[in-house]
Amino acid sequence: AVTVCEYQGLKIVRVIHDTAEAGISLHGGHLIWFKPAGENDVIWLSEKAEFDPAKAIRGGIPVCWPWFGKAGNPSHGFARTSKWSLKEHRENEHGVIVALELTDSEATRAVWPHAFHNLLTFEIGAELNVTLTSTNTDSSAWDYSGALHTYFDIADIRHAQITGMGPSYLDSTQGGLECQGEEVLTFTAETDRVYTQPDENVVITDVNGQRKINVSNNGHNAAVIWNPWQELSISMGDMADNSFETMVCVESTIRSDRPITLQPGESHSLSTRVATQN
Ligand code: TA6
């Protein structure tokens, strides 16, 4: 069943199906929970998340668009604080498809003076597929970057391993310094990295949670890893002091310094596929 309900003052598309359950906020086009049947949550949502239409929700899958990070104002773009509309929902052989849309408005043109259409499709089943298709509906070309900034729910960051990130990264905790990565990434401190040549499949091994989460991205040119660790978590009003322990972000990213150019009428899709292995 697919219903639109109120949750913490926001409109949420709620999906309940034999294969999985999910919730998608129209504010931000933001998936805030996903749980395959018989499993624990796969997507992390902050226990102190604020459901404020002026802010981005902490956790879930923020849609960063039309830029990544601080390349513009607001940080990570306006899509994650915009009100998306529900275009359709239907069932297919794998589960339920929910499609949302966002088009330019006076408010978006005030911060980014271009005409666009964004289609955001969620396939909710034993696996989760999220695809953001951006189309230039303007009469001249524009550039964009962004990310599907997924927060994964893990049992303990100190016992998590990530493979498939590729050989090199830009370290955002060191002003974008170019570094060579380890084959198996583990966490002991704040980690904020743009991996520039990720493999097709990134695997999060949640050792204490006794499962693997496979993440396959498409249409991206980087994969970002983020865990704020303790000091930064304490400084953020919408994260509990120790909640960094149970999350890690693995993001399907278009780098802000390597944006995609769309000519009038052209489209590009950025996607992420999430599948667990218990
Ligand atoms: O993707 C990593 C990152 O850009 C970090 O630098 C960190 O700031 C994080 O995203 C969260 O950003 P936000 O604007 O949601 O606080």
From TrEMBL:
It is an enzyme of class 5 (isomerase). Residues 259-278 are annotated as: Disordered. Pfam families: Aldose_epim. The keyword Acetylation does not apply. CDD domains: D-hex-6-P-epi_like. Its EC number is 5.1.3.15. Keywords: Isomerase. Residues 264-278 have a biased composition (Polar residues). Gene3D superfamilies: 2.70.98.10. One of its GO terms (biological process) is carbohydrate metabolic process. It catalyses: alpha-D-glucose 6-phosphate = beta-D-glucose 6-phosphate. GO terms for molecular function: carbohydrate binding; glucose-6-phosphate 1-epimerase activity. The active site is at H149, E251. PANTHER family: APOSPORY-ASSOCIATED PROTEIN C-RELATED, GLUCOSE-6-PHOSPHATE 1-EPIMERASE. Belongs to the glucose-6-phosphate 1-epimerase family. This is Putative glucose-6-phosphate 1-epimerase. It comes from Photobacterium aquae.
